[in-house]
Structure formats: structure tokens, C-alpha cells
């Protein structure tokens, strides 16, 4: 996402908790900061994408005296996946400290121009940030007050997580039935079920290629976020619950940092467990 901004000519100051991951940005012309504090010192609009609420709070110093020094007179754009109440709480704290807050979680492919941002916050603040999102996102959709963006992301990811688990099960079924997986892919993609997901993921599933695009551990954590939000609202999620179990099983099989399509291995393990013993 930051590379797309840099390639569009946006002046950038960047920082990553894993320093080596910023080198491609340095090569693209971005200034690589030594700390998050240095980013805030040099940028008026700061995009924050961190793995969870705990890390976000730690990096921002939330709850401590340094937090207000960082965010005052800054626009903080939270692009990570969090619980809705965390987004609302962070928004309130940023605004109370004299900053401005926009949430912009994203869904879709990280390829240039393929992401969709779901925006939440004050409409005037959102309007200010929107042009900066253009190099990263194909669409930017305003969803409502702070918290609405992440709720929308959870609703979309509920569909995504179940869809990928179902697609993995379909590939597994086709393989064990002796079907040609190239023909399977062609049939799926030529019909109403064809999509960007099937075009990217079916070849990966067929080849057992789990090169990470979205990590299995992140998909599993996301199913937990969705389930927690559902339980808080007394909403049943039977299909999500089963797919969440499968992502958790894949994590326990050692696939945490592999692509979420590794959910296939959890389905395969269930087949191996269910298969009757071979006697001779």
C-alpha cells in the first residue's frame, strides 16, 4: 500500500516494526524513519496499519503521556482490522488529544488499485483523507461514524473467510474424485461463481501453493473478531463458526504464516482422520 503511494509521487515518511521491510520503500524514494515518533514529527497525515489493537496501543503510547504529543494536530488513519469498540475508543482518544481520526480498513487484493477502503468517521475528515487513498484503492466507500468501517469489513470478511474455506473443500472434493483440476478451474471461472478469488486461489489450492497473500493466522484472528462482534449483538454465525475452526486447525498444523488457502490442509487432515483403515 505504501509502495503504491510512493509510486504515485506522494511524499512519504515510513516506519516498520521490522526494519528490513521498509527497504523497498527507501528504494522508491520514501524517507525511512527510525521510530514511529519520527513519522509523527514529519507527517501531518499518518496511516497506521498494525497487526492488532494491543500493538497499535503500544506503538502509539495510548494511555500514556506521549500519546497526546504524537497525535495532536495530526490526522490518524487507522487501516488495520480491530474490534468496532476499539476503533470507537481510539477515535475518541485521538479527538480528545487534539487530533483527528479516520478509519479506513481495506479488503481485496494488495495489487495496485485493487483494494476497497471502508471509511468511518466525521465526513469532513474522511473527505480530506480520500485523495490519499486513491493510489492504493480502487474504491473508497463511506460507511458512517467511527466503528462503521470495521463493522463493514467484518461483514465482508465473514463472506470471504467462508467462501475460501468452501472453495478449498470443493478443490479437495474434485481432487479426490479424480477430476482434472484445470478443467474444474475453467468450469468455475466460466460460470456465475467465477471471481477474482477463484481465479487467484484455485490454482494455488490445486498446486498446494500457500505463498502468503493473507496469512492463515490473520484469517483465524479475523474469524474471532467477527464471532465476538456477533455474540455481542446476539447474532448466530453457524457457517463462520465452522470455517473458523478450520482456520484454527490449519494454524495448529503449522501454517500460521502461510496463505489462508492453507485451510485446505485442515480439510485434508479431517479426511485422513475419517478414512477407514486399509486392511489386507
User: What would you call the quaternary organization?
Assistant: single chain
What is the overall shape?
Answer: globular
Q: Low-confidence parts, pLDDT < 50 over ≥5 residues?
A: none
Strand content: 5-15%
Helicity, as a percent range:
55-70%
Q: How would you describe this structure to a colleague?
A:
The protein contains 13 helices and eight strands. With 280 residues, the chain is mainly alpha-helical. The strands form three sheets. A three-stranded parallel β-sheet has the order 3-4-5, sandwiched between helices.
Can you lay out the helices and strands and say which pair or pack?
Elements lengths: L1 H6 L5 E2 L8 H5 L3 E2 L3 H7 L2 E4 L4 H8 L4 H7 L3 E4 L5 H13 L3 E4 L2 E3 L6 E6 L2 H11 L3 E8 L3 H29 L4 H10 L5 H12 L8 H17 L5 H18 L7 H12 L6
Helix pairs in contact: 8-10, 8-11, 8-12, 8-13, 9-10, 11-12, 12-13
Q: Can you summarize this structure?
A:
The protein has 280 residues and is mainly alpha-helical. The protein is 55% helix and 12% strand. A 3-stranded parallel β-sheet has the order 3-4-5, sandwiched between helices. A 3-stranded mixed β-sheet has the order 6-7-8.
State the main characteristics.
three-stranded mixed β-sheet, 8 strands, 55% helix, 12% strand
Amino acid at each position: 500500500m505504501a509502495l503504491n503511494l510512493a509510486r504515485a509521487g506522494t511524499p512519504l515518511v515510513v516506519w516498520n516494526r521490522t526494519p528490513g521491510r521498509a527497504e523497498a520503500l527507501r528504494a522508491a524514494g520514501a524517507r525511512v524513519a527510525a521510530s514511529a515518533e519520527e513519522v509523527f514529527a514529519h507527517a501531518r497525515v499518518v496511516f497506521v496499519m498494525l497487526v492488532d489493537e494491543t500493538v497499535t496501543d503500544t506503538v502509539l503510547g495510548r494511555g500514556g503521556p506521549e500519546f497526546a504529543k504524537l497525535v495532536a494536530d495530526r490526522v490518524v488513519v487507522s487501516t488495520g482490522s480491530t474490534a468496532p469498540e476499539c476503533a470507537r475508543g481510539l477515535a475518541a482518544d485521538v479527538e480528545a488529544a487534539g487530533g483527528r481520526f479516520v478509519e479506513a480498513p481495506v479488503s481485496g487484493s494488495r495489487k495496485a488499485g485493487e483494494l476497497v477502503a471502508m471509511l468511518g468517521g466525521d465526513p469532513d475528515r474522511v473527505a480530506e483523507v480520500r485523495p490519499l487513498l486513491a493510489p492504493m484503492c480502487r474504491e473508497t466507500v463511506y460507511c458512517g461514524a467511527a466503528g462503521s468501517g470495521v463493522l463493514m469489513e467484518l461483514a465482508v470478511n465473514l463472506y470471504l473467510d467462508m467462501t475460501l474455506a468452501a472453495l478449498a473443500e470443493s478443490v479437495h472434493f474434485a481432487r479426490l474424485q479424480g477430476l482434472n483440476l484445470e478443467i474444474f478451474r475453467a468450469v468455475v471461472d466460466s460460470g456465475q461463481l467465477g471471481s477474482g478469488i477463484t481465479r487467484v486461489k484455485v490454482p494455488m489450492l490445486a498446486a498446494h501453493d500457500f505463498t502468503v497473500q493473507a496469512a492463515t493466522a490473520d484469517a483465524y484472528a479475523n474469524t474471532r473478531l467477527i464471532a465476538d462482534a456477533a455474540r455481542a449483538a446476539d447474532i448466530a454465525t453457524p457457517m463462520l463458526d465452522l470455517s473458523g475452526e478450520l482456520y484454527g486447525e490449519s494454524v495448529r498444523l503449522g501454517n500460521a504464516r502461510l496463505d489462508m488457502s492453507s485451510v485446505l490442509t485442515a480439510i485434508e487432515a479431517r479426511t485422513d482422520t475419517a478414512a477407514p483403515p486399509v486392511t489386507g
